[in-house]
Amino acid sequence: MPTLLEQLVAKTSRRFEERYREPPRWVVAAPGRVNLIGEHIDYSDGFVLPMAIDRYTVIAARENDEARMSNDRTKDNSSFVIRHSSLAATVFSDATNDEVTIPLDTPQRHAKGGHWSNYVAGVMAGCVARGLRPSGFRAVIDSDVPLGGGLSSSAALEVATATLLEAITGVTLDPVAKALLCQQAEHEYAGVPCGIMDQFASTLCRADHLMLLDCRSRQVELIPFTDPQLTVLIINSNVKHELSGGEYAQRRDQCEAAARKLGVSSLRDATLDQLEAARGTLAPASYQRARHAISEIARTVNAAVAVRAGDWPAVGQYMADSHVSLRDDYEVSCRELDLLVELADAIGRAGGVYGSRMTGGGFGGCTVSLVETQRVDGIGRNIAAVYQRETGIEPTVLTSRPSQGAHIVQAPS
Ligand code: ADP
Ligand code: MG
Predict the structure, then answer these.
(1) Helix (H, G, I), strand (E, B), or coil: what is residue 94?
(2) Fewer Cβ close by (within 10 Å): the C or N end of the chain?
(3) Quick one: average pLDDT of 324-328?
(4) To test the ligand 1 pocket, which listed residue (157, 192, 248) has its Cβ within 8 A of the most ligand atoms?
(5) Is 179 helix (H, G, I), strand (E, B) or coil?
(6) Nearest residue (CA) to ligand 1, atom 7
(7) Residue nearest to ligand 1 atom 15, measured at CA
(8) Centroid of ligand 2 to alpha carbon of 364 (angstroms)
(9) Residue 167 C-alpha to ligand 1 middle, in angstroms?
(10) Is 302 exposed, middle or buried (0-12, 13-18, 19+ CB in 10 A)?
């Protein structure tokens, strides 16, 4: 049986050939991600513990006629050389059924704000700024990471684009620099002020490993997660509650206010004892938010230790505690996420669930659960059925083991 990635690679290559009447020369892949634990603490200089999921964005590409002409002339030693600035990339996305042409010397933002190609153009600009000089090319993008589903299709698209430019130019970027340039593209071209987790996970994750990322030092530690009896179950509630605005910024401010009161530069440097001692001086909301941040940072570090030891009941308990903290102290959960977690908890250890929690920003999106591989399909079906009965909303269920980060699938030798 071909893997999901092999199937997607074959499909994308086929699409490329249908569109451009020749096979692709380069094929690259970059995954989506899910965060097992460590939520809403990146901006408190905390830790996150994501893994790459077995869902990818794949790009198939080949040089275009412009590039061929340019190459031929160079070979002929002709005095006429097409200037680099005339080279462009034509990029088609299957998901949006839309083609764009991006000049490679100065990749521009799309005239329409929020256009998907901004993620691509932003990464191209970042790569060009770091000295990569790709020839003109055509590309087809396909993805089985759900778009806008909280599994970071945006980082998958960015990191796949950077990986494609590495394949075309034969230049390998430093992986941390690569992740950071993708983040910068999301900030500056897509206008999304994201943290560093998504691009780091898509770039640096490895199969059978979780990634413990220190959001302060940007140090990455890969933690083996090799036990085949464990699988990660991801259920998208398929709700996204409209926020009145400012909810995230407000929590950030509350964390910063607490840090100031505690005399630390970020909550990373505070302990729960310090927080308790200062409780009387803090606004109740600030106290609550800080209690989440400080306890979540400790839980994430402890969960990584438990993963290393193969202590799955402990990992599950940390995930369960994380959910309670996000629900009660940080107040970013919602009825639907709570229901999904309650249903998983009700199945419990005896039924094959080690632990479950909301993952991502909150107010909708996904839950992540640590589940026995043998029983994961039945568990996913059961939770989905009750959830749908109670809410009238069909959830999306996905399972994954920790998967390989971005890589070149095909390149001429
Ligand atoms: P998430 O990253 O959780 O999936 P985002 O809102 O951050 O959600 O990113 C989703 C956006 O990224 C899409 O609306 C689209 O603009 C862009 N995108 C992601 N993958 C693709 C793709 N394969 N083709 C075109 N655009 C994509
Ligand atoms: Mg995103």
Answers:
(1) coil
(2) C
(3) 98
(4) 157
(5) helix
(6) 154
(7) 116
(8) 14
(9) 22
(10) middle
Amino acid at 355: G
Q: How far apart are CA 176 and CA 393, in angstroms?
A: 39
Distance CA 262, CA 207 (A): 40
Question: Residue with the nearest Cα to atom 22 of ligand 1?
Answer: 95
- 């632990």: which residue's tokens? 355
DSSP track, 217-251: T--EEEEE---TTEEEEEEEEEEEPPP-S-HHHHH
**Residue positions counted in the chain:** 413
Q: d(Cα 368, Cα 385) in Å, to the nearest integer?
A: 17
Query: Do residues 15 and 59 touch, judged by C-beta distance below 8 A?
Result: no
Residue in 42, 198, 321, 329 annotated catalytic: 198
Give the pLDDT of residue 81: 42
Cβ neighbours around 138 below 10 Å, total: 23
* 65 given a catalytic annotation: no
Relative to the CA of 198, which ligand 1 atom is closest?
Answer: 2
- For residue 314, which amino acid is it? A
Nearest to 362 by CA among 287, 268, 253, 289: 289
The four Cα atoms 160, 164, 167, 169 give a dihedral, to 10 degrees, of: -140
Q: Output the furthest CA–CA distance in the chain (Å, rounded).
A: 79
What is the tens place of the pLDDT at every residue in 85-104?
A: 469 999 999 999 999 999 99
Only one residue has tokens 């490329």, namely 16
Residue 78 alpha carbon to ligand 1 centre in Å:
43
Tokens 């340039």 belong to which residue? 181
